[in-house]
Amino acid sequence: MQTAGKNLLITKDTALYRGLNRSVQYGDFIAKAVLYDHMAEQGVDQRTILDTLAEEFVNYNRLAGRGRDFLESIGLLWFFNYKLRIQKVLLNTIRERPVSFGLFAGGVGPWLDVDTILSGSGFGAWWDNRIGCSSRAT
Predict the structure, then answer these.
(1) What's the pTM?
(2) Could you give the residue ranges of the DSSP H alpha helices within 15-65?
(3) Most-buried pick from 54, 58, 117, 129 (CB within 10 A)?
(4) Do 76 and 127 sit in the same domain of this protein?
């Protein structure tokens, strides 16, 4: 019964948690590898590629601080590392690809109910009145 409860809650000491965690890490690794190969084929130097990878992917290993870590651990803040750190990606997208940003942020994305960079950001969560939740307001 205790093991079933832990699996239901997906606690850190369960095989389910370890499997989900590993699948997320593999997914990030594959995405980074594809972007690395794509940029290398275009002739971009390795330092620029590594800097881009560091900027374009959310680094979840940075410490949040005691206060925010506590609020996240008791469930008051959900996915706040993502919501805060995606802001940099949002601004880079606006600066480097304004047409794509316009299509997905204000055009095609919301019509298709696709989670976009804007809707996944802290500003988007505030706009949809779901700043403490992970799902969209219905």
Answers:
(1) 0.55
(2) 15-41, 46-56
(3) 117
(4) yes
